[in-house]
Automatic annotation (TrEMBL):
Keyword entries, A-Z: ATP-binding, DNA-binding, Metal-binding, Nucleotide-binding, Repressor, Transcription, Transcription regulation, Zinc, Zinc-finger
Annotated cofactor note: Binds 1 zinc ion.
A GO term, aspect molecular function: ATP binding
Keyword Glycoprotein: no
Organism from which the protein derives: Paralcaligenes ureilyticus
Record protein name field: Transcriptional repressor NrdR
GO biological process: negative regulation of DNA-templated transcription
């Protein structure tokens, strides 16, 4: 780390502490050349991975588009906006936490399916049927099987 005052590369860390939230490290540095002090902050760089579509093209992750497809599947279903927001946030967090530079659209689809499965079974089947259509009929049949409510005798 170059000294901001004299541009010397000879600097020492004299103190290091983690922020209360634990997401930043603050370092006090001293320049060996001019003896001036300065502070640096270090934080993890969190970047949304690019989404690689089936045809191989890359697009930016689009939370609004994601919300749109969730809402479409949840049309006329008794699920609150807060719950949809929370689901979108969980998907975003999961993608951020992956640390990957790019993910397949299939992976994003699986995350959506997992969230919808928790939110609403009808929306889950709607999304899964459109998303997985013609790609893997077996998966879709399995999805339908999984939600069949056992009948009372
Ligand atoms: Zn200096």
């Amino acid at each position: 780390m170059k000294c901001p005052f004299c541009s010397s590369f000879d600097t020492q860390v004299i103190d290091s502490r983690v922020s209360e939230e634990g997401d930043t490290i603050r370092r006090r540095r001293r320049c060996v050349n001019c003896d001036r002090r300065f502070t640096t902050y270090e934080r993890a760089e969190l970047v949304m991975p690019a989404v690689v579509k089936r045809n191989g093209t890359r697009v930016e992750f689009d939370a609004a588009k994601l919300r749109g497809s969730l809402n479409l599947s949840l049309r006329k279903r008794p699920v609150s906006t807060e719950d949809v927001d929370a689901a979108v946030a969980r998907i975003e967090e999961s993608l951020l936490a992956s640390g990957l530079r790019e993910v397949s659209s299939g992976h994003v689809g699986e995350l959506v399916i997992a969230e919808l499965k928790k939110l609403d079974q009808v929306a889950y089947v709607r999304f899964a049927s459109v998303y997985k259509s013609f790609e893997d009929i077996g998966e879709f049949v399995k999805a339908i099987d999984e939600i069949q409510v056992p009948r009372k005798p």
